[in-house]
Amino acid sequence: MDEPFGGSIEPGFEAVGDAFKTNFEKGRERGAAFCLHVDGRKVVDIYGGYADRARSIPYDQDALQLVFSSTKGATAICANLLEQRGQLDLSAPVANYWPEFAQAGKENIPVLWLLSHQAGLPVVDRDLSPEEAQAWDPMIEALAAQAPVWEPGTAHGYHALTYGYLVGEVVRRITGTSLGTFFAEQVAGPLGLEFWIGLPEAQEHRVSPIGGGAGSLLPEGSDGPPSGLSFGKTLLGRALNAARAFSEPGWMNTVAWHAAEVPAGNGITNARSLSRLYAALISPVEGGPPESFFTPEQVERARTQRTSGVDQVFLSVGYPMEQRIGQGFWLANEYAAWGGAGSFGHAGAGGSYGFADPENKVAVGYVMNKMGADIAGDPRSHRLVKAVYDSIGAEPKYF
Predict the structure, then answer these.
(1) What SS3 state is found at 73?
(2) Which of 60, 63, 215, 236 is deepest in the core (most CB within 10 A)?
(3) Can you tell me the distance from the alpha carbon of 327 to that of 338, in angstroms, rounded to the nearest whole number?
(4) Tell me, what's the pLDDT at 99?
(5) pTM: predicted TM-score of the whole model, two decimal places
(6) How far apart are CA 323 and CA 268, in angstroms?
(7) Does residue 259 contact residue 266 with C-beta atoms inside 8 Å?
């Protein structure tokens, strides 16, 4: 094969490396990385391909990657951590923490419905520029004034970009710091992660640009995923472009987007940090705190299913997706096929994902720079996850 590969694989996990290389052989990757922790210990940490479209820069251990909605898992961790510490009551009205939110019939919406996409706020009617959305406060003011598009609590629908602002503002009101700062100080720092929601300028040169190519959702040379405008005025289209703020081609590869704090979709990290993040929720990790980040009780709360039925946002384009959602996390199912029945985590547009499986003591992180045609249902991820469960001798539930 022409692609360069590197990293480490412990004996017994060779099948994971084979699956990773198969994704390249089938033309589905340009540059990617995958990491696996078992019982808090890193056993696979591999990377390969190229970091640039010209295929001149190897995708190596220093590459960083935009992971889109895999960021939502990090945001959910912040909220769950505040609940665990007794600082956040998910059953309390959002307005208890954010008084301005009690407009347009939203005074009784509990915080939990922000995490479970049941608040009816996947869109804002106010037009915002990219600069306004990235500045935070204009989007917060728009969401405070926004009326729900369905009766809160009666349905759920993917809050593609508003999720991060909604949960992030609650975190900010409680802690006095932005969500990106809270995550950096309370989660990424103690765990030694290279994971930012709001990338420092000094790290920008390490970011591998997102793009398309053969076997991808996008044509070669494209600048990332299609904007929400590709879905017109449907609920999904409006949710994806967030008041037109994120509708220009190439917005996801700009320095301004990387530096902003958009906790639903602009996290930048690598596979080893994503895997270590989820491993630390369920087990002590090497070189980290002596105890898991979440207590067993918090793990159970985090992965308790809060939704049922069809996602209203995806239904707007004729896609009847029945996603299972916990306290901000996606739960394993036929769509998010993460092997273990009790797995929880989050995936991002184009294919990235991270999850934890407490029963099998497994945590995984996968990042890539070539957009696939789906979020969680990507054949690359299915191949890798199946190899993980084959290696540990466990039967994957959703394969």
Answers:
(1) helix
(2) 236
(3) 17
(4) 98
(5) 0.96
(6) 25
(7) no
